[in-house]
Amino acid sequence: MHKIIHFNEIDSTNVFARKNLQKFNDFDIISADNQNLGHGQFERKWFSSPKNGGNIYISIILKPKNIEHLNELTQYSAFKAAQTLEQYGVSPAFKYPNDILINGKKICGILAESVFLGNDFKGVIVGIGINLNLDTNEVKNIDIPATSLYIETGVQTDKNEFLNKLLDNFKNDWEEFLLNGNKGEMIC
């Protein structure tokens, strides 16, 4: 089981995780129903909505001893998110370096941020946002072509069930990833 710290609303799960990193353990999860200042790469705003059963807005706190393959973590995370989406009958594609698309529209974004104190590695935070239940009106709030699992399948997704599958998938090959990095099938 994963330790999940859940908020109804927060500015950003990644910002909260970064500010409080010393309080958390390896694989603690920060989750929110809504982020009012969520962001992606280059501080691009991430639209979030708690409506229709919710979406995934999480930050996974990682404190690995071996950081040799840390530069491959975004791709590993994208592969694991895509693997989870496939379990719901869709065919995700990768847009390097940190997006997952379905039918050419963004469904998932990933933001990995390493935290150092001087030269000392303190941890890495992997933010993952996945549009599960946004409807066609809500995706219009996103400044690029976007979609959701609901739009693609016509079925609402149980957020907690999806989150548990995602975290299980993420952990399944984690030790192997730390030792050997991404294998050919994991490179986006």
Structural class: alpha+beta
What would the average pLDDT be, to the nearest integer?
87
CATH topology: BirA Bifunctional Protein, domain 2
Strand runs, count: 7
Count up the domains: 1
Tell me what the structure shows.
The protein has one domain (4-186): BirA Bifunctional Protein, domain 2 (2-Layer Sandwich). 25% of the residues lie in helices and 28% in strands. The protein is built from 5 helices and 7 strands, in the order E-H-E-E-H-E-E-E-E-H-H-H. It has a 7-stranded mixed beta sheet with strand order 1-2-3-7-6-5-4, sandwiched between helices. Strand 5 (99-102) and strand 6 form a beta hairpin. The two termini are 28 Å apart. The model is unreliable at 38-42 (pLDDT under 50).
Key words describing this protein structure:
single chain; 188 residues; alpha+beta; BirA Bifunctional Protein, domain 2; 5 helices; 7 strands; 25% helix; globular
